[in-house]
Give the backbone structure.
Amino acid sequence: MHINRICVLVCLLGTIASAQAAGIHNTEYHGWNAFILSNGTVEAIIVPQVGRVMQFRFTGEQDGPFWENEATLGKSADPGSKEWLNFGGDKTWPAEQAQWPKIMNREWPPPATFDSTPVKAIAEKKRIRLEYPVDPHYGIRVTRWVELDPQKNIMRIRTRYEKVQGDPVKVGVWVITQLKDPREVRLYKSAGSSMKDGYVQVSGPAPFGLQVHDWGISLRRDPRDKLKVGSDGDRLEWFGNSWRLRIDAEPRVGKAEYPEKGSSVQVYTNDDPDKYVELETQGPLVTMKKGDRQERVNTYTLTRSDQ
């Protein structure tokens, strides 16, 4: 009886602690002012100063699968700099990259308003809204909503592009999630894919550790070379030593045009010394005129690596 009472008390305290952790809280994170969005089981760390979701982890843990660049922790985004600060985390860029020189008269770094500008964060009832300044080159305002499923280990990020000024521009919603060096990454193809072996080579050498499966391909990070592959599917998975992260994009849109050889999902692997990979989703390319909107939702499911 005494043991049973102790078990009940421990379970009760655990439930209370989870309930207290759920919600939206301000915090200091690696030198930044940040928000923690928690459902009591998982939490998202959002840093408006650099316009990113910097981490997605289990509540109470100090680490998670998102890659964070230790060299840039606590630093501020500088929209006027010609040097790209690679913070890590989850962000959005306008697709497709091949059009950047035409639209903003440079190949690199990415458009500053999308990548290197502090954003306004608004805590809503059970989510965080991130509002970006209007980009002067694209004439687009980005808004992102970050929310957690109330019961599951799931985060959803809705990314909206709204054309508010300037000439029409062809653009797609591109979301990039930087993750730690994996044991394996999986890139899923669509049913009836016409891509040879279920993928296309976007850049760099052949995939490192490539294995072809009925559902798509698996690969590992190449420590010597950068490379990128894509497919016409809507699902990606990352496997680490402690966690497993699945990213589901919205279903592919019929006969719509997609960037970079028709890719709707992509994997980029970086070479040493920055040991990270990127799981990327791309929406269809749409010619946007003033007043137009387009948006895409990514769903992130976090589990233990042994589940």
In short: Residues 62-304 form a domain with the Beta-galactosidase; Chain A, domain 5 fold (CATH 2.70.98).
